[in-house]
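User: Hi! I'm working on a homework problem where we have to compare a predicted structure to a textbook description. Could you give me the structure for the chain below?
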Amino acid sequence: MRELSGKVSILEQQLETESQQKEEALAKVEALGGLVAELQLQAEAQRNHEVLEKMQTTEQRAAELELQLQAEAQQKHDAAEKVEMLEFRVADLERQLDEQSHTQGETDEQVCCVCDTPALSLLRQHSEVT
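Assistant: Happy to help. Predicted structure tokens:
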């Protein structure tokens, strides 16, 4: 019986030791679970912050591109107006040149007609004689 009592005592001590180890392990698991949850929250917050920064950068780039597009559209519009104005000016100059050419042709015809008059022929003959 003594032997049996000793074995029971040893088993009780082992049970007590294992219970303490189990409680310590459960406390560690709980502490580590809280640490894991905290780290997950920090990681999620970091990801959210990075996503937010990327969104802000993207929005800023989009705004810059929009301004650039507007400036280029204005430049294109201005260039189109200049082209239209220059085409109008070229057409006007061509019209003026055509009118001058036509007027010059009439003047040349009038001079030729004057050269062929009988009075001018007589003057030419007279100047050749003298």
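For your comparison, note the following. The chain has one domain: 2-129. The mean pLDDT is 88. Good luck with the assignment!
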